[in-house]
Automatic annotation (TrEMBL), chain A:
The lineage of its organism: Bacteria, Bacillati, Bacillota, Bacilli, Bacillales. One of its GO terms (molecular function) is oxidoreductase activity. Pfam families: AhpC-TSA (PF00578). GO terms for cellular component: cell envelope. InterPro entries: AhpC/TSA, Thioredoxin-like_sf, Thioredoxin_CS, Thioredoxin_domain, Thioredoxin_ResA/DsbE_sf. GO terms for biological process: cytochrome complex assembly. This is Alkyl hydroperoxide reductase.
TrEMBL record, chain B:
InterPro entries: Cyt_c_bgen_Ccs1/CcsB/ResB, ResB-like_domain. This is Cytochrome C biogenesis protein ResB. It is a multi-pass membrane protein. GO terms for cellular component: membrane. It comes from Paenibacillus durus ATCC 35681. It is found in: Membrane. The lineage of its organism: Bacteria, Bacillati, Bacillota, Bacilli, Bacillales.
Length: 174, 561
């Protein structure tokens, strides 16, 4: 043991730093619970109205506006035109707007979209799995996710044109 | 925790052995090196007088870090800090004890300003906080380093013990006897072997010197405790790793197969039953006032997804893997996942209706079709008629503009708008509003709406004959799904700790050294605890050797019995 003493000491200390660093790191930067502003956006895999399966990873490197809505929720219905208008305005800059419907079936969602005439991507979350991983309680809730996949801001409640515009502008200029 | 040692000491003992710096007793002959006085004070016998690993002449950076963690004093400070920190977490309930609260408002509402301060300081999740985890990690480091620092020298010292010890080593033990002996020295020592062996000692002799030792394993007790604690700590820290821990509460409406998030499992509540105590079974004060459930049980089937799992555009292929009637404290358990009965809701939820299309004028029935509330079919046929589902509302209502809307995604007041085509109808078809629930029919005036839509000549109605045409999910069972893969390691660690405690508590390491030199017997004995027992054993041995001695007189200097 005599000559091996120093290396063994160093190995043990390094192990402690690694394990301890991991444990402290996950506790300091929220290893669980709701996503917060600044944390990584949870992944999802949901069926779109276009009949295809969509994942969050598809939009890597693009700013995303992720809007959770339901057809029964009046403020959600009211903010749809604003989302559509801002998507039209910003899509040339690579901004992606995604509406995730909460817990309704395809027919309800399709009828609703036909009625409001929005054209951005609509996904369905009938089992509320994305709702769970994003920790959504009131609707509407909108996540502004930057190109790095980090949540920039979380907006709870109805959005208006100017707020939406300012938030997307912030995302694009990051 | 040793006194200051001078920087340069001549560490060579008179017996010729070269000792490392900070050695207390010569590794070979046991001569006290730090105080050369002939005082009779009992010796410091910790780690058999070996230098601890961390005691070096010129410590570097790594050594300094090492020495910090190898100090028992620091370890005690850390433990006290952790205890104080733990108490902070008990002032108000922790966030993790609630299911559905928003901690940012709850603590303020419930406990006022103190609650808000508590939340803002992050004490509402004390045990997950960075500083608490840091303390745990530091205690873990201290456990590992303290143990290594002491156990290796101790192991070496006990492995290669010299039988013949320095006289001063013997006379400065806590149990000492010096007597004149008439017999030949070697013969006396040889005769001492058997009685000691009878007392359970392992005896080694070297001419006129003897060492008897028993229960050395008891010395490893503390280190075994430390190994157990380290495993315990690692298991607790590992609970944060993905896949090792899950704890969620989910609703399972009877008859639905529900996916358990973050797993490949699906669970179906086949039948939920609840039994209540009858009035006569309950104590006086509850009768007529309380409803107490006697039993609730979920007949559950667990499925595992084998193909097409994550893809929402495909139906997952499921295989049955487990069946269990879940009751309180009797969970379904499969490969480390457990499903506990948690709560229930007896509100029935409408799943489907099977209405008949009838001619209200002639009473003729054209047949029936099944209308699901969720993922309804879009087209139905009944006799010569086709029905196309145009709109559906799960909870029918009207918005501010008087437009029909759904007030929630739950089928509390479902309504369906059909376009019916077929004989005797206008070429573009006829619209028909259908409310499956009888009370909704009346409240929203289905007939009046349809008279407006179809005009006076309308003759078609959708009707549900009896309850056989209605499918309810009678109740919803709430289950708590848990995975805790770190738990076996927690128990293992705790078990090892227990083993170490038993080893250290119920056995003592006892050693007796003696030399017979020039007609004089010098005997010294040492134990790590229970000196009383050791003195009694030495006395019994000496009596076998025809030396009568008063037990008290064996004691050398003050000290704990």
């Amino acid at each position: 043991m005599g000559n091996a003493r120093k290396p063994v000491q160093i190995i043990i200390l390094v192990l402690i730093v690694l394990l301890g660093g991991y444990a402290i790191g996950t506790s300091a930067f929220g290893g669980d619970g709701k996503p917060e502003e600044g944390s990584r956006a949870p992944s999802f895999e949901l069926l779109g109205l276009d009949g295809k399966t969509h994942k969050l990873d598809e939009y890597k490197g693009k700013p995303i506006v992720l809007n959770f809505w339901g057809s029964w929720c009046a403020p959600c219905v009211k903010e749809m035109p604003a989302l559509e208008a801002q998507w039209e305005k910003w899509k040339a800059q690579g901004v992606v707007v995604v509406g995730i419907n909460v817990g309704e079936d395809q027919m309800t969602v399709q009828n609703f979209v036909n009625g409001t005439g929005v054209n951005f991507l609509i996904l369905m979350d009938p089992e509320r799995e994305a709702v769970r991983s994003y920790g959504i309680s009131p609707l509407p809730t909108t996540f502004f996710i930057n190109a790095k996949g980090k949540i920039d801001t979380i907006h709870i409640g109805q959005l208006d044109l100017s707020t939406l515009d300012a938030q997307i502008g912030k995302l694009v200029n990051r | 925790m040793s006194g200051r040692t001078p920087l340069f000491v001549n560490t060579k003992c008179e017996c010729g052995h070269q000792n490392p710096a900070a050695t207390v007793l010569c590794e070979a002959c046991g001569k006290p090196l730090l105080d050369n006085t002939d005082s009779g004070d009992p010796l410091e016998m910790r780690y058999d007088g070996m230098a601890r690993r961390s005691q070096k002449a010129n410590p570097g950076v790594v050594d300094r870090v090492w020495n910090f963690f190898s100090s028992v004093k620091i370890a005690i400070y850390l433990i006290v800090l952790m205890l104080l920190g733990s108490t902070l977490g008990t002032i108000f309930p922790q966030e993790s004890t609630f299911l559905n609260i928003d901690p940012s408002t709850y603590y303020k509402q419930r406990y006022g300003t103190a609650g808000e301060i508590y939340y803002r300081l992050g004490l509402s999740h004390t045990y997950e906080s960075w500083w608490f985890i840091t303390l745990l990690v530091m205690i873990g480091a201290s456990l590992v380093i303290c143990s290594l620092d002491r156990v290796l020298p101790l192991y070496k010292a006990l492995k290669r013990q010299n039988i013949r010890k320095h006289r001063r080593f013997l006379t400065r033990q806590k149990v000492v006897l010096v007597r004149k002996i008439a017999e030949d020295s070697d013969a006396w020592v040889a005769g001492a072997v058997q009685p000691l062996k009878k007392q359970g000692y392992r005896v080694m002799t070297d001419g006129s010197a003897l060492l008897a030792e028993k229960h050395r394993f008891s010395r490893w007790g503390p280190y075994i405790i430390h190994i157990g604690l380290i495993i315990f700590l690692l298991a607790v820290l590992a609970r944060g790793l993905p896949g090792l821990n899950m704890d969620q509460h989910l609703a399972f409406p009877q008859g639905d197969i529900i996916h358990i998030p973050d797993t490949s499992y699906y669970l179906e509540n086949e039948k939920f039953t609840v039994e209540f105590y009858k009035d006569e079974e309950m104590p006086e004060e509850f009768r007529g006032k309380k409803v107490l459930p006697k039993l609730y049980e979920t007949k559950a089937v667990l499925y595992e997804c084998t193909a097409d799992c994550g893809d929402p555009s495909k139906e997952p292929k499921l295989t049955k893997v487990a069946l269990h009637a879940i009751q309180v404290n009797d969970p379904l358990s499969y490969k480390g996942m457990k499903a506990y009965q948690f709560d229930y809701d007896l509100t029935p939820v409408l799943r489907s209706v099977t209405p008949k299309l009838v001619n209200s004028a002639t009473g003729e029935s054209y047949g029936s079709f099944k209308l699901e509330m969720k993922n309804s079919q879009r087209r139905f046929a009944a006799g010569p008629y086709t029905l196309e589902l145009k709109e559906k509302y799960m909870e029918f209502g009207l918005n501010e503009e008087g437009q029909p809307i759904s007030k929630s995604p739950y089928p509390n007041a479902p309504a369906f708008l059909f376009l019916i085509k077929g004989p005797n109808l206008p070429p573009g078809g006829e619209q028909y509003f259908y409310f499956p629930k009888q009370n909704d029919k009346a409240e929203f005036q289905q007939d009046a709406i349809n008279d407006k839509l179809g005009g006076a000549g309308r003759f078609l109605e959708l009707e549900v004959g009896d309850m056989s045409g209605v499918d309810f999910s009678e109740s919803t069972s709430y289950l708590n799904l848990r995975v805790d893969r770190a738990m076996p390691f927690v128990w293992t660690g705790a078990g090892i700790v227990m083993l170490g405690l038993v080893l250290g508590f119920y056995w003592q390491h006892r050693r007796i050294w003696l030399t017979v030199d020039g007609g004089e017997l010098t005997l010294g004995a040492h134990t790590n605890k229970n000196w009383f027992g050791l003195r009694r054993e030495v006395k019994a041995f000496l009596e076998k050797m025809n030396i009568s001695v008063d037990e008290k007189s064996l004691e050398n200097g003050g000290g704990q019995a």
